[in-house]
Amino acid sequence: MAAMGAWMWSKGPWNLPNVLSLVRILMVPMLVVLYYADIRHRGLTCCAVFTVAALTDWFDGYLARKWKISSAFGAFLDPVADKLMVATALVILAAGHHGRTLDVALPASITISREIAVSALREWMAQIGARESVKVGWMGKCKAFAQMVALSGLLLSLPSPGSSGLPISIDALYASSLALLWASTVMALSSAYDYFKVALPVLTKVD
């Protein structure tokens, strides 16, 4: 039994934290299918899938640090899984929610554009050995938390049979979640500004 469970805390690529990241990636198509499914409690189901994915994002990092099994593969896989889930949720919600597509489409396009730009910046800074200067800061972590809560709320507010049983009205949940999504978008732009401000001297350096 001990030998069978050793893989969970090994320093190889298939330890438990990395497997959780892979599971999060596999949950992406599940979220899409459930979003377009004609089922009762569709919003609650989508919210549950997204919330579980968000919790694994925290849990795999916690385990990697606790067991001291952080790896290059895990450092690559974890943010990829996170961005795939968030981007997918933003795209499907932007496609139409409560008949108000622009409400979510605008912050979604800003957020996804920001993620692409910052990811490209980090990759370029890593190539010149300066990735530490653009590592995730406290603003980026606050953005990620607000984003997860906002998207969970927007998914939960999806109109579907059975949604009337929520303790808060659908419109109120939608409005508060949308406000939090915009707050996370502002934080995303603020943190991106900080990253590019630090990298600007290197970016504009003349050889």
TrEMBL record:
<keyword id="KW-1133">Transmembrane helix</keyword>
<dbReference type="InterPro" id="IPR000462">
    <property type="entry name" value="CDP-OH_P_trans"/>
</dbReference>
<dbReference type="InterPro" id="IPR004570">
    <property type="entry name" value="Phosphatidylglycerol_P_synth"/>
</dbReference>
<dbReference type="GO" id="GO:0046474">
    <property type="term" value="P:glycerophospholipid biosynthetic process"/>
</dbReference>
<dbReference type="GO" id="GO:0008444">
    <property type="term" value="F:CDP-diacylglycerol-glycerol-3-phosphate 3-phosphatidyltransferase activity"/>
</dbReference>
<keyword id="KW-0444">Lipid biosynthesis</keyword>
<dbReference type="Pfam" id="PF01066">
    <property type="entry name" value="CDP-OH_P_transf"/>
</dbReference>
<keyword id="KW-0443">Lipid metabolism</keyword>
<keyword id="KW-0808">Transferase</keyword>
<dbReference type="GO" id="GO:0016020">
    <property type="term" value="C:membrane"/>
</dbReference>
<keyword id="KW-0812">Transmembrane</keyword>
<comment type="similarity">
    <text>Belongs to the CDP-alcohol phosphatidyltransferase class-I family.</text>
</comment>
<protein>
    <recommendedName>
        <fullName>CDP-diacylglycerol--glycerol-3-phosphate 3-phosphatidyltransferase</fullName>
    </recommendedName>
</protein>
<dbReference type="InterPro" id="IPR043130">
    <property type="entry name" value="CDP-OH_PTrfase_TM_dom"/>
</dbReference>
<keyword id="KW-0594">Phospholipid biosynthesis</keyword>
<keyword id="KW-0472">Membrane</keyword>
<dbReference type="InterPro" id="IPR048254">
    <property type="entry name" value="CDP_ALCOHOL_P_TRANSF_CS"/>
</dbReference>
<keyword id="KW-1208">Phospholipid metabolism</keyword>
<feature type="transmembrane region" description="Helical">
    <location>
        <begin position="20"/>
        <end position="37"/>
    </location>
</feature>
<dbReference type="InterPro" id="IPR050324">
    <property type="entry name" value="CDP-alcohol_PTase-I"/>
</dbReference>
